[in-house]
Amino acid sequence: MKKTILYKRILILFSRMCVTMKKSNFLLLKHFLLILGLHFYEKHSYIALFITMKGTFFMASQTYHHNKKTGATYVYTVESYWDKEKKAPRNKQVYIGKLDKQSGDIIPSQRKKKTVTQGLLAGVSAETQVVGPAMLLDKLAKDTGLAGIVRRCFPRLYSEIMSLVYFIVQKGLPLSRSEAWSIRHLHPYGKMIVSQRISELLLEISEDDRQKFLALWMSKMAGNDYFCYDITSISSYSKENEYVRYGYNRDGEHLPQVNLAILFGQKSQLPAYYRRMPGNISDVATLRTTMKSMDFLGSSSVHFVLDRGFYSKENIDAILARRHHFTLAVRTGLKWVEEAIDKHYESIASPQNYQPINDIEALYVVSNLLKWGDKRRRVYLHIYYNAKYAADEFDRFTRNLLKYKEEVESGKRVKEHEESYARFLIIKETPKRGLSVSFNDEEVQKNRKRYVGFFCILTSAIKDPMDALTVYRTKESVENSFNDLKNQLDMKRLRIHSSAAMDSRIFIQFLALILISRIRNISKQDKVLKNFTVREIMEHMETLVKIKFSGRYGQLYTETYPNQRKIMEVFDILLPT
User: Fold this and answer.
1) What is the spatial distance between Cα 389 and Cα 288, in angstroms, rounded to a whole number?
2) Are residues 171 and 120 in the same domain?
3) Residues 126 and 145 in one domain
4) Under 8 Å between Cβ of 264 and 477
């Protein structure tokens, strides 16, 4: 009984602290009490009811009302809160039972929470589990169809795979640190995930099953959508992985790497396909192999949205031969593009070609219908001129020239730049002086004066130039997904040595990327949640805890606070009663 009184006094002290402290300090105290509460639940479970969180203060104090006529003393919990309308603090009292005159114990009311109180006072044990993040992720996995497809492809390993996916989305930490998380959190596997089992699991996820998943997922995503295609590099310290090679590192790191290509749906705003490649493969060379891989999966016609780095005549020929469509930027330095610009050079600035984009940007736009290749396939070249863009383009052109010169001098020539080498550089090599590279100033000045400020988009399907521009500019979605992979989902470095385990690790990351993309898409449509990062949303849901009591006393959930209720409203999550 002395311990009971001691812990009640501690909790009352905490509640008084909460009333006066700043909100930032209060959030820290909430996390501290949650951890502290987990320890107490095991040994002194009767305090569980008082650690219920209400977003601003704790339900930690009681008040007594004595009825003079009947002689009964009624006990109420007191909760302090801020009244937004009256702009003043208020108290809310909830009846929990009568006070026994002889023993001093509370005789609970008949409602469920009061029955729980009786159990707590009787020394009933209780278990706690963090359930908020899993409630959110369960809903998203079901709504996107991800859960059903993973279960179909991995019936035996489904729960373990999805549990690791949940861990990555919630924490963004190495899988080796999921063991402690799996004990405290609700997840599909429902058991502790030990490190040794993770290593075994990564080797049990077969390539056939991964490809089966990609085929089903791509089939679900395909339809009337545009798919942004891009590549990123992931650095690794591994020396035993045959796919880890030195190549162009997009993070500027001098480390070997693997390359990862991703297709991202513009309308669905979800990743649709990925492929792992050796780190020394250039971007332009990957597209044809990716299309072949997609053919093996039985994918239907796809509309690719590509950056200018993927342009080559061979790539365009391959896309058209497979009956796919494309929209991509092309360099104005290409000879045939310059000839197209020359046709409209004098007339493009006519008022009839003027297209305002917004209050600060406007373009002059014209289009050419072209016949491509031996089969004379119809494509459209849309030409855009932006006078304000001209100054930036001047600097970009200069940087490209310096890059071309460095490539030739270092002996690392790029096949796609050969036309630019021949046009803008003067290359000489003699037995005595060796290799000499200088700029062809006449051609450089001609290009600067005539073609700066122009940019072009080539497409096989979009006739309207403004529609083509809109589709191309929304390719930033795939760039955001790369940022999520590296900074939100622990893919800045690969810490796995074998290629088999690495492939499974990347696969789990891809599944996590689907869920994190869905969270981002839904939250950005709400005026409150659009200011939250995915990690912040997960942290808010982290304090939603289920308390399960032994025997017949059932369970209850900690009180939700405003941000949690907003998240649950936007994502259509119902708290079990």
Assistant:
1) 32
2) no
3) no
4) yes
